[in-house]
Design a protein that fits this description.
It contains 20 helices and ten strands. By secondary structure, it is mainly α. It has a domain of about 170 residues: Serine Threonine Protein Phosphatase 5, Tetratricopeptide repeat (Alpha Horseshoe). The strands form five sheets. The chain has a two-stranded antiparallel sheet with strand order 1-3. α3 runs antiparallel to α6. The protein is globular, with a radius of gyration of 25 Å. This is Starch-binding associating with outer membrane. Belongs to the SusD family. It is found in: Cell outer membrane.
Length: about 525
């Protein structure tokens, strides 16, 4: 909910006596603070409230950036086999190692609280905006659509990690909401789909330059495709209902076929994630940052802290430039020159020993945790940085974090269509667009559904490495019990730690103990 200061006015006896002569003295209200009653009076106030709904996206529990030296969006990767957070900031490595508990705190508690913070603000906006005088009806409809999109995003995120949660659609009210039990997860998802459908019907395809970053019709449609893809996946669709896959494919195809969006693949994979190319045609929805108003710490994390350190398994996952895995004897892989002639996305995503980074040769001590560093979502790359970017501190970075991009829509369509109907020509066409961008060979014709499934899962891993999607991917595929029950290695093959994953428990996070202390009616997830 919009954080408004409650005003308490102490009236002394003299004031009361004066009011007997002039009752208008009691009809004053402060001009430097707001109450619930005085806030919702102008279109400008309504717009400020909507901005508050967006602002939660930058909270530590969502995509990060507000906190000191924070980069939540980049740390998401460290829960997966792709990366490692050695110091266990925000309890990310506890999750990766299967050691999370209701009392772990960190991301487990902040995600739950921040999602509800966003939901509360959206609920308040949707309830109160109709009371604002002087609102243009067309503009109000668009603003409501944005709030519905954001509420759908926050509810999608919270159910994705915790399962069913209390489904609240009214403004925050401790008297009626503080002891609510959990709704079924399916009920929450049904509301998410409704919110996104309603948002898509209300939102425009595009905005002018001054409104970049606001949710569009395409953003609502793309998020719906992601929701339906997750619902169709093995974790949530154990009976492999083909109709669920078909629904996900149709939702992604609707984005691909929607005219007027201007969506497409940006020409250069590495440059897609640079500040100079923000809001390009591939970006469907992102979290906007601007220093000094509200920056992030992505550059500091990538270049100095290395707390999203890539692992050997990720580096080995990239195919050779000829499209063959490094394990194939015909691939031409040379262990003495392991990064030569590889999928260009490797060098577009990470930096490695023998690479050049920030104008200097990279040796094995440059990124001491695993030997690897991250370039994606950072201004830093091969060349020495400009003077103004030489030593960016916490909160001084401005690169937007991309939540939804067109390549993901293509990949979602290919995965869902393959499961629903097999690897038809449309599956190949979607995937080969992504390969064309990086100059990699097309997928081999005649693949079986099972072989295509393996290729799609591999392609998702390397295409979206560093973007925080792979942890949710291996959970929804129910492969986390294999991929997170193993040792992890640095660039030289040295064991860093042994990870564990309990399939009877760890596919879901625990309800935070802080939330259960406040509301004993919240049933804990099994195994915690």
């Amino acid at each position: 909910m919009i954080q408004m200061n409650k005003i308490h006015i102490a009236i002394v006896a003299m004031g009361l006596m004066a009011s007997a002569c002039n009752k208008s003295l009691l009809d004053t209200e402060p001009h430097d603070k707001y109450t619930e009653e005085t806030f919702w009076r102008t279109p400008e106030a309504a717009n400020a409230a909507l901005t508050g709904c967006y602002s939660i996206l930058r909270n530590d529990g969502i995509y990060g950036g507000k906190g000191s030296n924070n980069a939540t969006a980049l740390w998401e990767e460290t829960m997966s086999p792709n990366a490692y957070y050695k110091t266990n900031g925000m309890a990310y490595n506890s999750i990766a190692s299967g050691q999370q508990m209701p009392s772990s705190g960190g991301i487990i508690s902040s995600r739950y609280a921040d999602c509800y913070g966003g939901i509360g603000r959206c609920n308040t906006f949707l309830k109160k905006v109709d009371e604002v005088p002087g609102m243009d009806e067309k503009q109000k409809k668009i603003m409501k659509g944005q709030a519905l999109f954001l509420r759908g995003l926050y509810y999608f995120m919270i159910q994705n990690y915790y399962g069913g949660v209390p489904l609240i659609l009214d403004p925050p009210d401790m008297n009626t909401q503080s002891k609510l039990p959990r709704n079924k997860r399916e009920e929450v998802v049904a509301q998410v789909i409704k919110d996104l459908d309603d948002a898509a019907a209300a939102l425009p395809l595009t905005y002018g330059a001054s409104d970049r970053g606001r949710a569009t019709k395409g953003a609502a449609m793309a998020l719906k495709a992601r929701v339906l893809l997750y619902e169709a996946s093995p974790l949530l669709n154990p009976g492999n209902n083909a109709a669920k896959w078909a629904a996900a494919a149709a939702a992604a195809k609707a984005v691909m076929d929607q005219g007027g969006t201007g969506y497409g693949l940006f020409s250069n994979y590495r440059n897609l994630f640079l500040k100079t190319n923000e809001n390009n045609k591939e970006v469907i929805f992102d979290v906007q940052y601007m220093f000094p108003n509200q920056g992030n710490s992505f550059d500091l994390i990538c270049a100095q802290y290395n707390s999203n350190a890539p692992l050997l398994g990720l580096a080995q996952a990239y195919y050779m430039k000829n499209g063959l895995p490094v394990t194939d004897p015909a691939s031409g892989y040379d262990a003495t020159k392991p990064y030569l002639n590889r999928d260009p996305r490797l060098q577009g995503t990470i930096t490695f020993p023998t690479d050049t980074f920030q104008g200097k040769f990279v040796d094995s001590s440059r990124f001491a945790i695993t030997g690897y560093g991250v370039k994606k979502f950072s201004v830093y790359d091969t060349l020495a940085p400009a003077q103004a970017e030489k030593d960016l501190k916490g909160g001084q970075s401005e690169i937007n974090f991309i939540v939804l991009r067109y390549a993901d829509v293509l990949m979602m369509y290919a995965e869902a269509q393959n499961e629903a109907a097999g690897p038809d020509a449309t599956v190949y066409a979607a995937l080969n667009q992504i390969r064309d961008r990086i100059g990699m060979p097309h997928f081999a014709p005649g693949l079986s559904k099972e072989d295509m499934r393996k290729e799609i899962r591999h392609e998702r891993r390397v295409e979206f490495a560093g973007e925080g999607l792979y942890y949710s991917d291996i959970r929804r595929w129910k492969t986390a019990e294999t991929e997170l029950n193993t040792e992890i290695y640095d660039f030289a093959g040295n064991v860093l730690e042994k990870r564990t994953f309990n399939p009877k428990r760890d596919y879901w996070w625990p309800i935070p103990q802080t939330e259960k202390d406040l509301n004993p009616n919240l049933e804990q997830n099994p195994g915690y």
